[in-house]
Specification:
The chain is α+β, with helices and mostly antiparallel strands and 91 residues long. β1 and β2 form a beta hairpin.
């Protein structure tokens, strides 16, 4: 994710702003509240993508970008300070 969120109005739900493997990665994590490592996420995503695959590096980079700045966060400024709010958990 390059800092800009692209919105594809032709796609429903999360696919409007995420690639297929990114949505699958988040859903795998949300389905396992005890947590998953990157290899487990990668295994689950590739099982869903068959016959296509995604590299483990792509999964790691996506998860890192979500950790650094969640897609659902927003930055607001006021009184000389910045605050970021949001959660990556589904509603």
């Amino acid at each position: 994710m390059n800092g800009n969120i692209e919105y594809d109005t032709a796609e429903p739900g999360l696919r409007a702003v995420l690639k297929d493997y990114q949505e699958l990665a988040l859903r795998a994590i949300w389905a396992n509240p005890e947590g998953l490592g990157s290899k487990a996420v990668w295994d689950r995503v590739n099982a869903e993508l068959k016959p296509n695959t995604i590299s483990r590096a792509s999964i790691i980079n996506f998860l890192e970008s979500m950790r650094e700045r969640p897609a659902s966060s927003r930055e607001s400024r006021g009184r000389g300070r910045a605050a970021t709010t949001g959660s990556t958990a589904p509603r």
